[in-house]
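Consider the record:
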Amino acid sequence: MWMKDVFNTNKPIVAMLHLAALPGDPLYDTEKGMKYVVERAKRELHALQEGGVDGVLVSNEYSFPYKGNVDTITVTSMARVIGELKADLKIPLGVNVISDPYKVFDLAVATEALFVRGTFTGAYAGDHGVETYDTGDIMRHKIAVGAGHVKCMYTLVPEASKYLVERTWEEIADSTVFRCQPDALLVAGFLAGREADTQIMTRVKKVVPNTPVFANTGVRLENLDVQLAACDGAIVGTTFKEDGDFYKEVDYKRVKEFMDKVKSIRENL
């Protein structure tokens, strides 16, 4: 699988690097400014790398409430931060522009990211109203901007959303792989930090055995064995934060303890 080439391991753990709110975001701190955003990102990157994660996924996680067509200032701010991180970056880089499936490829090309996470197909209803994704147009944009080599991790059903028509997880996975050829599928809990259903991951994996299936949320030290047994890797964010609090900064000790257990699990595979 491509994951071994990118992450140099089986069952990779991709850590979220949640950027502080950016210019234009309602939660942006104008007094602290971009200097704070960059400095916090650097602290968290070092904690994640030194803790032993296999890759890092940079996202505009605190750009609440999210937009479908993200403002230019958001993406340029993300590019600025990543540019300042590059000298310290020692692990594979991915990007996630929430919730814009087009600008994520623009950012990936500009920052030389190797993979992206996002929602690229489907029609959903949720907190943001009704959302639809034109996969054909999105993937043609990917090629047009020179991101053909960038690996795409598809969310099967976005957090806090529901498919507009009644479809089983197996049906969604089967048609997504057949029509879209994703590099990986992501199964999430209802919100960030909420545990993904291992039974759903197992069912999805049975239908699409040749496509990596990742746990997208809620993997913690306490459920690590069970979660990794049901999937091919995990994207981890909240559990690495101080006190497991979504809004706090990454805690090196929590990362190290988590990754030590991951390495122990891998040794027994």
